[in-house]
Amino acid sequence: MATAGRDAGLLRVDLPDARTRQALAPLLAAFAARHPGLRFQLSVTPAASPAPDGADLTIRLDPPCDPFWLAHRLGALRARLYAAPEYLVRRPAPERPADLAAHDCIGVHADDNGAPARWQLRRGQDRAVLMTRERYCVDDPEMARQLAARGAGIAPLREAAPGLVAVLPDWELEPVALYALTSAPRLPVRTRALIAHLTQALAD
Fold it and tell me: Structure pTM?
């Protein structure tokens, strides 16, 4: 049973981008269900921006460079490749990672400088690094899912979606590490509880 300290008060959580928001939304909802007295203020600050002073917990994709911040590694975001069957009828499914170079790929990241994108995949101890042709570059995983569902190409997604099939099912993209940043070594019980909850859910 949750303690009163965990079940009361406001938790201010700052998130960096759409990928993180989509991944953490169900985890935050599960945590809230276990601690009904908590309220949440969720905000968004781009990953490249400094961590805001007012947040109890700031989530970032990289550890901080500023020694003022303490980093707690939460785990990693994982993704596999998916496409619509109609796309794979038009374009035979890749049999190895290098085959992705000949496909329409859907990148999920914030910036696009027009150069081929570097995708890193792994299968157990095997690694493959390749330059892909991202016909689409989006900063929202939901947009990537919708494009893939309409046969636009191959997208990296956290989980399968209705109407999509796995591509190179033995491979996954190199996981992206997530960190929780705090400014004080002594944290409120509710903040420590949220860090523990996310760490367990995102364990590598």
Answer: 0.81
Cα distance between residue 132 and residue 114, in whole Å: 11
Q: How many domains does the chain have?
A: 2
User: Is the pLDDT score of 49 beyond 80?
Assistant: no
Regarding whether 159 and 96 lie in a shared domain, the answer is yes
Three-state secondary structure readout of the chain: CCCCCCCCEEEEEEECCHHHHHHHHHHHHHHHHHCCCEEEEEEECCCCCCCCCCCCEEEECCCCCCCCCEEEEEEEECCEEEECHHHHHHCCCCCCHHHHHHCCEEEECCCCCCCCEEEEEEECCEEEEEEECEEEEECCHHHHHHHHHCCCCEEEECCCCCCCEEECCCCEECCEEEEEEECCCCCCHHHHHHHHHHHHHCCC
Distance in angstroms (rounded) separating the CA atoms of residues 56 and 174: 29
Residues 114 and 171 in one domain: yes
Per residue in 58-75, pLDDT tens?
999 887 777 778 899 999
Domain residues for 59? 9-76+177-202
Q: How many CB atoms lie within 10 A of CB 169?
A: 12
Tokens representing 71 are 């980093």
Paired tokens of 98: 């290098």
Same domain? 69 vs 18: yes
40 and 128 in a single domain? The answer is: no
